[in-house]
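Lab notebook, design round three. We kept the backbone fixed and only want residue identities now. Task for the bench partner: fill in a sequence for the structure below.
Input structure tokens:
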């Protein structure tokens, strides 16, 4: 029986891999569903990625990756330790049960009008110009304004939240040790603000998500103060950063495929499928990091407790065993579901919200920004962690 040490080696930090990861993975895909990397195993087969996401013998390895980078205590570690990203078992199930009602399609859909109005306001000064940096003009503002609306955060504070979120993002990257001070600065400010907001909503309840979470109760159980801080801070972080980057990746993809952009402008009904295809072809999150907590065997390999496994959603989303022409981008194609939102116990809590934001934004942008194309080279975030454009210069026909 083979172990991870016997799997084909893949250097995910090499220039070749970072330049064209898809081609490198395609070369090893037929040899093994599992490869060995400098930071543990990488699962690249769709069937195995999907099954392991739901396997209770694997837990989130977020804290393990933080420990590898020297972060074992402090406010950043404590908040992440109590977040949905890191909790497991009964604790995780309890937290999700308390808050999941706020993120059902029925709960999200009434906010679609606000999403459209938010985007309209952001587009107003941009459209006559015919060019902009999309991230500066739209991407850095749209998702945080929508999330702050849901939570009941005053509009004047949106930009502060965006800055704190940008700093906290380093917690999900391999650059955390170099940016720990910055990430902890963001978390401290987020923590202080959210603590004040929770206290305010206890005194003065409103029709918003913070009030709903403060009052959330299931069979006499409620969120503790620490859980509230981690939950609300986590929602602000995840609800902003992933959607910001996914929307930027969508615009970059459509700029590279103008015929798909024109088609979306003509056919609003393609918006849901367009969102899924964007997330399949270029997801903002490429892997689901896990750690093995119980020895077991799977298809020729023995996986030992303590082993780090990264479940490659990006590889699974391009597996030719599942997808015809897996590297093509076609918003009319009927495909198997993409796995960028994860699966199993850690399936993204805010998936319905993220889908709604993208479904509302993309057809509006397609109609208002015809003849979309790049207006220079984008700059990119580091490839490990939440990925997307730092800057995205575009031009279009002014409207």
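Proposed sequence:
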């Amino acid at each position: 029986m083979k172990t991870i040490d016997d799997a084909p080696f893949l250097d995910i930090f090499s220039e070749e891999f970072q330049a064209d990861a898809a081609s490198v993975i395609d070369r090893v895909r037929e040899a093994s569903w599992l490869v060995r990397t400098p930071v543990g195993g990488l699962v690249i087969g769709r069937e195995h990625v999907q099954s392991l996401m739901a396997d209770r013998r694997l837990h989130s390895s977020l804290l393990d990756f933080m420990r590898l980078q020297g972060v074992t205590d402090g406010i950043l570690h404590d908040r992440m330790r109590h977040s949905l990203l890191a909790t497991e078992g009964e604790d995780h199930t309890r937290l999700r049960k308390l808050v999941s009602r706020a993120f059902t399609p029925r709960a999200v859909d009434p906010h679609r009008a606000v999403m459209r109005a938010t985007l309209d306001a952001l587009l107003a000064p941009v459209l006559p110009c015919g060019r902009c940096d999309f991230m500066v003009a739209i991407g850095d503002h749209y998702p945080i304004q929508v999330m702050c609306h849901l939570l009941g955060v005053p509009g004047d504070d949106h930009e502060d939240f965006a800055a704190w979120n940008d700093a906290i993002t380093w917690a999900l990257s391999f650059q955390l040790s170099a940016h720990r001070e910055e990430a902890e600065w963001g978390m401290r400010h987020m923590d202080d603000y959210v603590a004040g907001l929770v206290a305010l909503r206890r005194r003065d309840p409103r029709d918003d998500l913070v009030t709903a979470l403060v009052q959330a109760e299931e069979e006499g159980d409620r969120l503790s103060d620490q859980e509230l801080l981690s939950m609300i801070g986590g929602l602000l972080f995840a609800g902003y950063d992933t959607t910001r980057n996914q929307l930027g990746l969508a615009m970059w993809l459509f700029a590279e495929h103008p015929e798909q952009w024109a088609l979306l402008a003509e056919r609003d009904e393609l918006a849901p499928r367009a969102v899924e295809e964007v997330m399949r072809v270029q997801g903002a999150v490429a892997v689901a990091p896990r750690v093995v907590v119980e020895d077991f065997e799977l298809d020729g390999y023995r996986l030992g407790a303590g082993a780090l496994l990264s479940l490659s959603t990006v590889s699974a989303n391009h597996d030719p065993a599942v997808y015809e022409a897996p590297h093509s981008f076609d918003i009319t194609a009927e495909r198997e579901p993409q796995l960028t939102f994860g699966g199993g116990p850690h399936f993204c809590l805010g998936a319905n919200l993220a889908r709604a934001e993208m479904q509302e934004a993309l057809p509006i942008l397609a109609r208002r920004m015809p003849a979309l194309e790049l207006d220079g080279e984008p700059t990119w975030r580091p490839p490990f962690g939440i990925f997307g454009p730092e800057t995205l210069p575009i031009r279009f026909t002014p409207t």
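Keep this in mind before ordering anything: The radius of gyration is 21 Å.
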